[in-house]
Amino acid sequence: EAKKEEWEAMYAKYAEANADKAAELKRRFNNELPADALSQLPTFEIGKDKDLASRQFSMQCLNAMAPIMPELIGGSADLTPSNLTALKCSGDFQK
Known about the structure:
Radius of gyration: 19 Å
Order of helices and strands: HHHHH
Largest sheet: none
Strand content: under 5%
């Protein structure tokens, strides 16, 4: 219990000095999406937009969310080029 109180006091000081970072950390710990996340997703209209493979739609959605969700990670080893899971805003951790 003492360690918890010590942590909470330390975090309160951090939050006071770094309000934006603390709010972002709290969002992540609470498993919440950023406020405007869903509005960042692309929209597609059947019959109007070009038909694409589901992995291509997935790639567009992943790359729309990744810049506003730094905690988003994934991996597919050597299949990344074929399943289109590379995030344009981050690097390849394998290399």
